[in-house]
Amino acid sequence: MKVLVVDDEIMICEWLEFCISQNPLCQLTGVAHNGAEALELFQKEEPDLVLTDVKMPVMDGLEFLHALRSFNSRTKVVFLTAFSEFDLIRQALRDGASEYLLKTEMQNDVLQDLLNREAGELHLAENRDETDTASISQAHYVIGSILRQNKELTEEELENLRRCNIRWRNNGLFALAVWKKSILNGGLVFPGASQIRHVAGFDYTDRIYVIVGNFTRTLSEAEKAEKLAVYAGDIQKMNNCMVGISAITDEMRRIPLAIWQASCSLGEGFYEGKKRVYVPRYPLTELFKKNELWKNAFTEFNMHLYQAKGYQRYELLDEFLKNAASWRILAVESLCGLCRDTFELLEFEAKGNGISLTGTDILREQMEECISLEEARRIMEAFAGQCHLTELQNAPKSKNIQLAVEYINAHYAEQLSLEQVAASVYLNPDYFSRAFKMETGQTFVNYLTDVRLSRSVWLLENTALRVQMIAQQVGYYNASYFSTIFKKKYGMSPYEYRRKEK
């Protein structure tokens, strides 16, 4: 199996080269340090597997993946990622990536398992009769990767679906969405006699399973709407689950949009918590506009999430979830992704502060599967208790000191001075120093140090950046001094801490 490595970190490339050289089933065909270099190597070598970073200069991993798919290439693409890039990874999986590996978990045995698995699948594919249709698993993969796209299908994509034995007609197409958690035991049960046939079914997201349906004969618009309502209602009752439905379309190329609309309809159930059929709340044109607003809200939340710490992070998420209910954010997978991100950041911070956590694996699994706002908030509340996140008696109470804390959390990587922060909130430095200590229980210097070291712990655990680079990213331009204060707080040097985590 020919393997191409793509990463802008030389250290990671060298390590991957070493691991690949140990596997007799693999041959390294090249190493690139950005997507543009990788694309050039790909066209020359045509590798079977690509291991690629997400964020790179010139051309990033997602752009590289899109370029490969434009060639209609079946090359497997596995992303190497840090935790902070999970939103990008979820997008990559929807765009046709095979899977991902966390850089913090990239041990040799894990990588060898991946290489052996991919080599085995390649061997089976090469020995399969080329005139035969793809295997069920391959067809499922192709169908899912094409229909997960939130755009109209091209003629080539429609033809690829036909090769996977998709049979539909330009009349009465629709999508139904259910929570995967609802179909784990025995699968969905469908009504027996119906004028509807199932065209396809696949895992749409981590939580949602989608069924695409088609009316078997021509009906009036009113008849289609009536029969779809009855059909969805029967599925809901027979399976005792929530069902989200799309509008009906007569254009096959618009099926991905119908699927997305059905998933958003199901998103209503995330807030309502009632097992019933949920119809589209918005037409597609308005839904697209809403989605842009939701994306902006997610981006703003993430910005504040990484600037906050401890109880502030938990409080930030709790407030966002309250707003999500009033805003009616129907992009549930992205919303739950914010919960997962907060969960992980709180866990890393708690470990860095020496807090012993128990039962977190169970809570994490529950978060991965949760299908209601109430459940998500309950899990996060339980985890906040595990991390000892209780609101401190001496938390900032005055508006000026609250703003100062926010300013420090946003600018900790800069060469901050007490005078600079005091000026940002229009206070005299001497008065600011006394007020800050009185309201936070810490001096300005100690608070700033805690913010910087907490961030450095996260970077050590989730990136392959050199310690010197991490020191600079958290505001220390003298790596030796950074190492000294790190050891003073955590009892070991940054290098020792990273080895311990591995």
From TrEMBL:
Family annotation (PROSITE patterns): HTH_ARAC_FAMILY_1, HTH_ARAC_FAMILY_2, RESPONSE_REGULATORY
Keyword DNA-binding: yes
InterPro entries referenced in this protein's UniProt entry, alphabetically: CheY-like_superfamily, Homeodomain-like_sf, HTH_AraC, HTH_AraC-typ_CS, Sig_transdc_resp-reg_receiver, Tscrpt_reg_AraC-type_HTH
Ranges where the HTH araC/xylS-type domain occurs: 402-500
Superkingdom field: Bacteria
Gene3D superfamilies reported in the protein's UniProt record: 3.40.50.2300, Homeodomain-like
Positions of modified residues (4-aspartylphosphate): D53
Keywords for the protein's UniProt record, in alphabetical order: DNA-binding, Phosphoprotein, Transcription, Transcription regulation
Domain Response regulatory: from-to ranges: 2-118
GO molecular function annotation: DNA-binding transcription factor activity; sequence-specific DNA binding
Entry's Gene Ontology BP terms: phosphorelay signal transduction system
Described function: May play the central regulatory role in sporulation. It may be an element of the effector pathway responsible for the activation of sporulation genes in response to nutritional stress. Spo0A may act in concert with spo0H (a sigma factor) to control the expression of some genes that are critical to the sporulation process.
Protein name: Stage 0 sporulation protein A homolog
